[in-house]
Design goal:
mainly alpha; two-stranded antiparallel sheet; 48% helix; 5 helices; 3-stranded mixed β-sheet; 2 domains; signal; elongated
């Protein structure tokens, strides 16, 4: 709670100073909790109702050109579907959460990777370098891939167990 109050008061103080263009590269901002933060980049600016840190032309509500150090980040799903649909589709034959979802056969995944050099549904390195990535979207896709990998592993273990039984039966003959 104390950290949240500090962050909120810091952003409000930065917003107020940026709107008034009163923050310089060395001027500290004092928050209600008497914590000091300084603007080492030299730029904190309000532009068209948006706040920029490290940039004079923010393109989102808060734009930071630099590294953000945080202990925790909470991302709201706001309509995005967590990938429980992977297991639901696998065990039930279809998913009510995401009816269009179908897990690819492992051979199809292999063929896709050979052709495109990246996982299905994951953007290429070139696209990511050009456009960046959306953390919420990427984290959900990565969780989907982890769930798919888990199911592929379970299937492979089942096949291994069947082969062990078959080999054991052959050895006994």
């Amino acid at each position: 709670m104390k950290i949240s109050v500090f962050i909120i008061s810091s952003v409000l103080a930065l917003t107020s100073c940026a709107a008034q263009n009163t923050l310089s590269a060395t001027a500290p901002v004092t928050t209600s909790s008497q914590e000091n933060i300084s603007n080492s980049s030299g730029i904190i600016k309000e532009y068209n109702g948006k706040i920029g840190i490290g940039t004079a032309t923010p393109d989102e509500l808060l734009t930071v050109k630099g590294i953000i150090h945080s202990q925790e980040v909470l991302v709201d799903l706001q309509g995005a579907v967590a990938p429980d649909y992977v297991f639901e589709a696998y065990f039930n034959g279809a998913s009510a959460l995401k009816p269009s979802y179908q897990m690819m056969d492992l051979n199809d995944v292999s063929a896709y990777i050979k052709e495109h050099h990246h996982l299905p549904e994951i953007e290429s390195a070139a696209t990511l370098a050009k456009e960046g990535l959306e953390l919420k979207k990427m984290n959900l896709l990565l969780l989907q891939k982890i769930e798919e990998l888990t199911l592929y592993t379970i299937e492979q273990q089942s096949q291994i167990d069947q082969l062990k039984v078959a080999v054991s039966t052959l050895i006994k003959k």
